[in-house]
Input
Amino acid sequence: YRKSSVFIADINQENAFNETYKQNLLKLWNLVMIKFTEDTTVIPRESEWFGFYNEGQAQETSPLENNTALWEEDRLGLRQLYETGRLARLPVKGDHLQIPHDDLIAVIDRYLKQQQPNNNTIPVPFPWG
Output
């Protein structure tokens, strides 16, 4: 994946570290990661929450916290988002991107509506207005 990926490996800081990627992610008020419990597109499903297959096989997975490069070195800023209460992991029943309207509205209301920023964040506009 690291050799053949055009976008994902780069944005996930797998091939080279880019401080700008991390700093931009840390500007978010909240990062909401949604895992679709019946997803048939993303394999493994756990990667929707930055989980990965365990080394050397393609059956068992480990969560983000067990991935030293992303978590221990905090290459993307995910650990910092978690430690500041700005990283949410939500399971949604359904296939890839098939989020029920009511669930989408609940996510927007809880995590994405305008909030009072702290000194380290800036507002991020949404396409929903």
Summary: The longest strand covers residues 31-36.
